[in-house]
């Protein structure tokens, strides 16, 4: 590989210290010739010159090979002697497939008194451990040893069993997290600054009772690593589809580099005065919301469909035939506890669900509480109200809102840290029209939460920071580090006093003068005599506490 790095590339490099995957294994690489390239995951063993490094590199190589076999649902089967199997050397490709004439890695292995057969046995053993068919090294198995071809299942294989599946979702890493993991077998993760950004999720892995997501850059596919399920806000996503649609969009609306983007992924803002034309070319559904990618005034990016208005002429609604039965026009009403945002394009607000037409409203792209739902004929309605007051806004059709379930708010008493610039909102799941302010100061600030509410899968907290109050997503908050435990003082440092009367202390705000004739200064109200008489009479002393005994 050293002599051909400009003309070839492999999927991964392995040495005694690390496994570096340089190309997606779902796509071909160019390292074993034209015949073999489309078939195999190509791995380059980095040459080492001491026994310890070589042994570690063989262990890492076998582990990586076993992991790939498990992920793709394959079993170890050497092709070295018959040209059939799942584990191939470059020599086997040259001998049975052609397109190359290399014979590695046999020479390199022999130089370390090692053989391919030993390496294959190690791959097979790693695979059996990962599949829970034999006990891991260093543990005791209660099963009777058998040949590798027919391994005996240990009594509790599920505790360390790995399962991997493809995933097509998105996730945002929380500020407080366990870090990124190169493999799910790593005991600790590496610290990351890639927090509060939206990433694509390509795989899900479960190891024992721990679940992980493999996150990657949404646009480039560059992998960042594995992250624990509890360290992200995750949403399902459908595959993007091509569209060709024009919408109108208001100036100032933010465009993002990814769908469901955050403040760290802003691509720009819509310029101009008055509504502008947004030409959409791509669409993707994230959870229940639709996002569109397009261009406006020379800028491109993603935007929620809730901020767009379709400029196409609406299709005329056909007049119902007089013979249409009305037996389904039964009204049903039930209580509901949710929240909703009215789309920019809507049928208006209805005073009653019997109204034929709604009244135009400007209360769009704001979060409201939903208290009731009603069904009349084939139409479903939500009754929306101001979140913070009993003021009813009106009935709105189901198709005119983005709706989410909500649990009732609960009181909490918790302190968090929050970064400067983080937006506070007057309601949970608030929009840019409901901003209550932004966190000021430099460095992390203290946010004192007093209320918590779950909206769909997300948690929002209401609290105060630097004199400003509002709601913020829990994803933007971090639990402060626990203070160091106080060191116990030796018993000899504690003075014993006899309390003969109950004593109380209360806060006052008064000015006092120390008399020239005084009894001195006492460090504690428990001291019977003063340590030293006060010789200087200062005219004004601010007294903020008063101790009383009676």
TrEMBL record:
Residues 141-159 have a biased composition (Low complexity). Pfam families: GW. Gene3D superfamilies: 2.30.30.170, Peptidoglycan recognition protein-like (3.40.80.10). CDD domains: PGRP. The keyword Ribonucleoprotein does not apply. It comes from the Bacteria. SMART domains: Ami_2. InterPro entries: Amidase/PGRP_sf, Amidase_domain, GW_dom, GW_dom_sf. This is Bifunctional autolysin. It comes from Staphylococcus aureus. The lineage of its organism: Bacteria, Bacillati, Bacillota, Bacilli, Bacillales.
